[in-house]
Amino acid sequence: MVKKKLLDQVTDIARFRHLSIRTEGAYRNWIKRFILFHGKRHPRELDAEAVRAFLTHLAVNEHVAASTQNQAFNALLFLYRQVLQMGALNIEGVERARQSRKLPLVFTKPEANAVIAQMRGVPQLIAGLLYGSGLRIMEAVRLRIKDIDFSRNEITVRDGSPREIKI
Question: I need a surface site. Which of 35, 52, 136, 163 has the fewest CB within 10 A?
Fold first, then answer.
């Protein structure tokens, strides 16, 4: 029996665990970057210090956001725990990316309406749905006619987080 390549194993286990395609892709990307960072050495040969060095490199040299560093950390935990089944790594002393202290800038209602009014066609429809209903981008893009119930003013979100949206 031929043993699958590591990234193919990551795909198989991610799908077995019903992770989203986007999470699977992100995890594959972080694992690949981790391997390349360490000169194409197999992760079985690397220990917690190698993970620590990679995560610190992301924060210090690449100046990634804290959420980005956390995503890389979770991808590596997935690799070691689920794919390689090596148990928990003792990863301490990692230089953490700083949390952003900036508050997000939010449009006022007239500003949002002015932006949406400048759009046309499908982009305008999707932007209106995002603004008016609270749908996420992928939820709006995947929306189908059968998901809209005008008599009850409801949209059914499939493969999204569990929540109810009223329009």
Answer: 163
> Taking the CB of residue 82, how many other CB atoms lie within 10 A of it?
17
pLDDT tens figures, 109-163? 999 999 999 999 999 989 998 888 888 888 888 888 898 888 988 888 876 555 5
pTM: 0.67
Pairwise CA distance, residues 155 & 45, whole Å: 49
Closest Cα to residue 164, out of 142, 141, 139, 131? 139
Hey, what are 158's tokens?
């499939």
Q: What is the pLDDT of residue 154?
A: 86
- Other C-beta atoms closer than 10 Å to the C-beta of 74 total 14
User: Cβ of 57: how many Cβ atoms within 10 Å?
Assistant: 15
Q: Which two tokens stand for residue 107?
A: 């449009």
Kindly give the pairing relationship between strand 154-155 and strand 165-166.
antiparallel
Whole-number Å distance between alpha carbons of 138 and 154: 18
Phi, psi (deg, nearest 5) at residue 110: -60, -35
Phi, psi dihedrals of residue 73, rounded to the nearest 5°: -60, -45
CA distances from 87 to 46, 77, 79, 80, 94 (A): 13, 9, 10, 7, 19
Q: What is the largest CA-CA distance in the chain?
A: 63
Computed over its alpha carbons, how large is the radius of gyration of the chain? 21
